[in-house]
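Inputs:
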Amino acid sequence: MHPNPQRFLDSLHALRAIGAVGTGVVRPAYSDKDIEARKWLAGQFRDAGLAPYFDPVGNLFGLAGDGPSLLMGSHSDTQPEGGWLDGAYGVMAALEVARAAKEAGGPAVSVVSFQDEEGRYGVTTGSTVWAGGRSLEDADGLTASDGSTYAQGRARMADLVSGGFLDPARFTGFIEAHIEQGPYLDTAQEQVGVVTSIVGIRDMRITLTGQSNHAGTTPMHLRRDAFQGLADFNRKLNDRLRNVVRPETVWTIGHVSLHPNGSSIVPGRVTFSMQWRDGESDRLARMETIIRETAAEVAAERGLGLEFGRMLGLEPVTMDDRLQQALAEAAEAEAPGKWRRMPSGALHDTTNVARHMPVAMLFVPSIGGVSHNFEEDTREEDLVVGLNVLARAVAAL
Amino acid sequence: MHPNPQRFLDSLHALRAIGAVGTGVVRPAYSDKDIEARKWLAGQFRDAGLAPYFDPVGNLFGLAGDGPSLLMGSHSDTQPEGGWLDGAYGVMAALEVARAAKEAGGPAVSVVSFQDEEGRYGVTTGSTVWAGGRSLEDADGLTASDGSTYAQGRARMADLVSGGFLDPARFTGFIEAHIEQGPYLDTAQEQVGVVTSIVGIRDMRITLTGQSNHAGTTPMHLRRDAFQGLADFNRKLNDRLRNVVRPETVWTIGHVSLHPNGSSIVPGRVTFSMQWRDGESDRLARMETIIRETAAEVAAERGLGLEFGRMLGLEPVTMDDRLQQALAEAAEAEAPGKWRRMPSGALHDTTNVARHMPVAMLFVPSIGGVSHNFEEDTREEDLVVGLNVLARAVAAL
């Protein structure tokens, strides 16, 4: 079974061109560019002898016949300002492996590009709904920061839908290749990471409501300043989490929206995102308790209203031993001494697919550990080594 | 000289109706509603025998003949979500006093509604440019938070301009009536405040630049999180300012803009507003030093880029003794024992006009001290007492 590196790289760059902005890509879920990319992918699947299938939320499958097959892939939607490899690498590597398998009369390999992995409306929304982690009715109510709903998003590609949701039972397993999006492989000058587990994630919006008022005539001691409430919450939270976290635990306030957001007005309201990740469910739960208690304490101290949004989350997931072993042996053959087993700090569609079948993941290095950023990149030789490891593992399975 | 309370209240409510939203008003500088209100005001001036005059930035005057006259007024633009009396009270009270003066054959009283007092593009921009505090060329470069320039804003009413800037020398003095926008008069159940001085203000944008990166795979110790930089700056600043401020000193972070502002991305950049006010220039300067040093320190500690925007500011101003005394005597006559002398924590157009003529200000209470808010309100009897104090003082001058 012999994948074609040049054909693979050409396809990868062709996808990159759709929504390209400088060195990066802007192709958020259900945007014109995202839909254009999925139509192009469907054509690529057809050319490779795979039957394109769009499910009701826009997950795009390339099916290797009606019988059982191994599923491989990732996602082709991007962050608002995304890199060119995040998701795209796993989809195009899967396509090349499927091509090579067909050419070699090897195992049946189907390909998938899940929709809204980057969480414009939720967290890995497309694979979550497909895997039954959230009902479609429930997901339809999710809103993006621009106020649009998931229902409105998926309606933009309703004309492409092939039919209902595919039965996961038709797939014998799932392998997702992805860039590491972290600094570990690059720092160690290694080429491949065989994932052992994926960390769990919790994400919710928190709103603090005070009183917007004149910034010149309202004495400091009479203010109910929502931004000061947020800053106070952030400081207390950082102090308190130190007691429960591990070095690999992360937490982030990435979105902040002040109201009315004028320089001469004491902020009356702030809505912000609170996201935290760790490999252990217990720790995630302990962190949630501290977050809720700290917010309640700050709100009470400052006379602020407090509202918690719905909490989105995914549990930590362990990779399948057999698939993981096949990837490890292929890694040692293709990149002897230059690979490692490692957990994934990033969330992936694999987390959801694991509800229905054995799963595994393969990482290639991210230069400087940079991702979710226009500068995101990986050395071409590492992209190809990753492809070869995948092909070798699939042939061995 | 006898002002007509009902005629005054009717005019005030007629102005309120232009851009009314619930109990509040949305009439930001150069918006359709702001321009509509100024056209309506010009008609009111004409009916009162005052000659309407729009200057190049949209400041609207109602001139009592070509000879010397006393200027009275305030502004008719509002905050993005403004109250119905902020600015409007001073303009309509001035108009009623001008009407009463004409009817009684009293002193010549001209009226003005300055443009962009609320600082959509700067700080009291219209009166600043008229008074020569900033060149028109310079002001044209100011931008609003929606990215539009002052030049684009004033171009929206270019068709109304009557001619060049009026010579301030034609006016013998300026009196501005305004709601207090603070809690002092209302708390003390007093009806009138005679202003002794107006605090100075400093306002600038600060930008901290780090590295936007994946919120799941970037270890906490490797992050250059711009929001964490802002929170750290805010905490250190609050601690350090305690040593130089007085109870009446205020400082505010009212505008915050994160980039890219996604819940799964470590924030790579934050731009925020830093505004501070006090009655003494020396203290304002000491605060500026602490603000700049603290920002530089936080940026250095966290490896963040730091950029200070242009600093807008106005110096503290003392009211004219003679005008102030006339208002004080009228206040004692109209509201015996229910008035006080007090500083203004809010900035007003009077600050700029003071460069060219004697100035004074009169306050009426704000219920609950609430302002820059739809709930802003004042008891009707207090609105009328303020009107009567103005008329009596003008007659006595």
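The mean pLDDT of chain A is 96. Flag for discussion at group meeting.
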